[in-house]
Each structure stands twice: as C-alpha cells, then as structure tokens.
Amino acid sequence: MKKMLAAVLAAASCASIAQAQAQVQQAPAHTATLSVATPIPDQPLPAFTLDQAVLAAGGAAPSNAAAAAGLEAAQAGRTVATLRPNPTFQGQVENIVGSGPYRGLRSAETTIGVAIPIELGGKRSARVAVANAQVSRAELQAAIAAADIRLQVTQLYIQAIAAERRLTTARDQARIAAEVLRGAGVRVQAGRASPLEQQRADVARINADANVERLTRLAEAARTNLARRIGNPIDGPLDVGLLDRLPAATFGPVLPQAAQGTLALAAADADLAIADAGIRLARASRVPDINVGPALRRLAATSDTAAVFAISIPIPVFNNGRAAIAQATAERTRAAALRRVTVLDVEQAITEAEAEAANAATSARAAAGPALAAAQEAARIARIGYREGKFGQLDLLDAERTLAETRVAAIDALANYQNARARLERLTAPAPDQQGN
Fold first, then answer.
1. Residue 74: what are its φ and ψ, rounded to 5°?
2. CA torsion, points 402, 404, 405, 406, in degrees to nearest 10?
3. Beta carbons of 170 and 215 less than 8 angstroms apart
4. Which of 6, 34, 135, 313 is the most exposed place for a label (fewest CB within 10 A)?
C-alpha cells in the first residue's frame, strides 16, 4: 500500500513539473511571434505518378517515333495510290540514212507526240483500297506501340517502387538490429548474458547493414532505368502507395473475356483487309491498259504537217496476271489462318493472365494482411519478452527474421499482382475504334 501511494505521488509530481515546464516554454514562443515571422516549412515535392511517367515516356520512346513514321509513310503511300500514271513524250524520225532520195535528212519524217496511259479494270480504286487498308494497319500499330510503352513503363515503375519499399524494410531491420546489439551489450555488461549473445547480435547487425547497401544499389538502378525509359530525370518521390491498391475479393468462377475488340485481333483483321484488297488489285491488274497518243508529223519533202493518232494495247501472252492472283489468294489464306491463330492465342493469354492476376491478388491480400500482422505481433512480443528476460536472443532473432521475410514476401506479392494486372490490361487493350477515336 505504501509503495502504491508513493508511486501515485511520484506520478503526480512528475505531471506537475511537466506542466510547469510546458507553460514556461510557451511564453517565449508567444513573445517571439510578435517580433519575428514564423518560417514556412518547405512543401514536399508531389509524387511522380505512373500516368505522368507514361505520358513522359510516350514522347521519348523510339517505338512511338517509329510507329508515327510508319503511319506517315502509309499516308504518303495512299497519296501515291491516288495519282494517275504520267503521260509519255514520244519522238520519232523516219526515212533517214537511206539510199536515193532518202539519203541524209532530205526525206525525213519527224513525229512528235504524247502517249497518255488509260487505266482500265479499276486499278486506281484497287490501289487506293490497298493503301487505305495499310493506313488503318499503321494506325493500329501506333496504338499497339502506345500500349506496349505503357506496359513497359508500368513494369519499370512497379519495379522501382517495390525496390524502394524493400529498401525501407531493410532500413527498419537494420535499425532494429542495432537496437538489439545495444541491448545485448547492456545485458553483457550487467552480467545477465554471455558475450556470445552480443556477438550474434553484431553478426545480425552487419548482415542487416550489408542488406541495406545492396538494396540501395538496386533501388537506384531501378529508378535510373525508369528515368532512362521516360527520357527525363526523376526528382520527386514515386507513388509508393500504388502497390497497396488491390481489388475487392471476388468469389466464384470468372467469366472469360473474348478476343473481340482487342488490339491484337484488330491488327489481324487489318492484315486480312490488306490481303483482300491485294486480291482485288491483282484481279484489276489482269485487264490490259491502253495508251493513246496524239502527235504531229512533219514531212521534210513537202514541208507539210499532218496529225497522227496512235493507240497501243499490250498483249497478255507471257504474263496474264494469274500468277499474281494466285499469290494474292495465298496471302489472303495465310492472313485468315493467322487471324484464327491470333484469336486462340489472345483468348488463352487473357485466361492465363486473369488467373495469374486473381492468384496474385489473393497472395497479396494474405501476405500483406493476416500473415504480416501475425509476424509483426510475434516480433513485438519477442522484443518485449527479450527485454524482460522471458525470451532468449535466438527467439528474438528468429521473430525478426520471420518479420523481415514476411514483409519482403508481401512486397513481392503486391508487385506480382500489379505486374499481372498490367499484362492483363495490355492483352485486353481495346482497339481505337472501340474507344470511339
């Protein structure tokens, strides 16, 4: 009873002293505000988000520039396809270098004219159709390049923030290892533990510091790779909280998504459209073109001038266009077969990506939820028990190692889910037509 009363009085006196010190410290502070302006603390830099990284990478990506150049080339090809064939200038001199009256140039007949090709069979419209299909394919290629850039930047961004989270975990473990080493030193000096306990704590501290050094290099390398991909240095912090964004838990089978409307299938459809237009062009090329040419002829013998009208039609003896049609038809069959393969591959990849993302989300919820909470509680109990002498050092080190491994496993699980989700979004990325563009 006396001990309890003494403890209550001591606590009350400590509270009174603390209150008095607080009042003494508040008075100068109030006075200082009258004469000196309070400095405004520096505002922290905003986080460099994933969307900002994707936007920055789009302007610096070589693949995006290549896709833009391909689209420009396809559009120029469409302009070329709309052009008509050029006329041909013709000149002809007859009745020269002969015998008798045709000796020299006295009886020469000079003809000057123009040959104008006239395309038949719809060749020009067929060429334009092929060019339009190629432009559509180039536009899809640009969208595919943008989707690939987003996936690449997302993976690098996730790698960078996961590396920073691992580094933060390693620093916490190094701090805890240093505290354990200090506690072991106190216990050894007090004669409550053997020097072996301090040596074990020192080994754990050395390993923790080495792990911090190793993960620091990895975090710097991950940030450097991300900065290299976007083409700009990254000054501010990254959105580390992106790892913790998990979907709500779902139960039951997931309905599989079809390949219809995806970028991959749209590209296969565009290749098939190009093949169809190629067959039409091959068939139109079988129709012979004609060349018509008005001309003027001068007769040297009489110095008279006469009009000449020429017409020429090629005879399809050696090349009648059947081989070109057979080639175009084979290309169309190949494009149709590749489209069917694309449907199977895309749907299979989407199914696997959905299962992978769902499993990764389940693992991330377990690792970052109950498992991590249990490991943290076990480590907390081990620290308290070690300080009170109820647990040995090996129990404490084992609990801390388990906590560190669980935290790293949680980070890995969260990163795996984000990567799986990014791959699924890339596989199911809609074609520009599906987006209303």
1. -65, -40
2. 80
3. yes
4. 34
Sole residue written with tokens 């104008």: 116
Tokens 């790892």 belong to residue = 243
242-270: pLDDT as tens digits: 888 887 766 555 555 777 889 999 999 99
Q: Which residues of the chain have pLDDT under 70?
A: 1-44, 98-106, 249-256, 433-437
Tokens of 193: 């533990």
Write the DSSP assignment of 226-254 as a string of letters. HHHHHTS---S-B-GGGGG--PPP--SPP
pLDDT at 171: 92
CB 382 within 8 A of CB 404: no
CA nearest 276: which of 329, 334, 341? 329
Report the helix count and the strand count for the chain, using DSSP H and E.
Answer: 9, 4
Written as one letter, the residue type at 421 is R
| R_g of the chain, CA atoms, integer Å | 41
Could you tell me the pTM of the whole model? 0.76
Nearest Cα neighbor of 60 from 224, 231, 227, 225 is 231
